[in-house]
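Query protein
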Amino acid sequence: MLRLAGQNPNWGYRRIHGELAALGIKVAAATVWNILKEHGIDPAPDRDHTTWANFLSSQAQAIVAADFFETKTLTGATLHVLAVIEHATRRVRILGATAHPTAAWVTQLARNMVMDLHDAGAGVKFLIRDRDVRYPATFDALLQAEGIEVVQTGVRMPRMNAVMERWVRSCRTELLDRTLIWNQAHLLHALRETAPLQAPHRYAPCPTPSPNPTGSPTSTSTDTTASVASCTSTNTWRDQHGRGSWHLQGCSETHAHPIGRRARRRG
């Protein structure tokens, strides 16, 4: 009975009773109804309707979710970050950050994300996002051309994108509210280093720096986002005056400031 009900969502207890009778199994229709009820199986009209929760659980391997969030730097600038999360593995991909999220920039990040997913062999069919005006029409058009259907959440219904919203909240609580962000490169490095630590058993591991026989402060990073590929690794040390320094490999800026040590301790 349970197998027939699970494999045929549009079968009610009377249809199951008839199928059992055809198989030579004599049982009352009321008995079938009681057994289905005891095991928490809803009537056929309710089971035939796919709920949002059932859709997310059944299609988790093919779903990614995207969201924008903002943060402030020490200079008062507002940086907009675009991130996506895979529902099945909870792997987070920080696509990029900028102070001016133009349509061309967002579209390029979508193109980078698609190439990254193809390289990883992820069979993504759906992307869930809210109705943020920062998503241009070209963003949806590019994904649909790649066979990815864009699913927009309802108005003022953040629970439809609960997986992404929950990660953004954790990111704010565990990182952004505790760290002094210096600039865009520092923000991207902090996000990409912190995301795997929030759920080590479900996130992809961070790249391991190669050994350095000379002892000089260097590090390596593998990044698939072309717009910020060279600004993801950070080394910290102290100069002769004991001040903390942030040195971003691959970038043209080296920032030394007394608050660097405090920022690292908070982080």
Q: What stands out?
A: Confidence is low (pLDDT under 50) at residues 199-267. Residues 37 and 43 are 8 Å apart (CA to CA). The chain is about 40% helix and 20% strand.
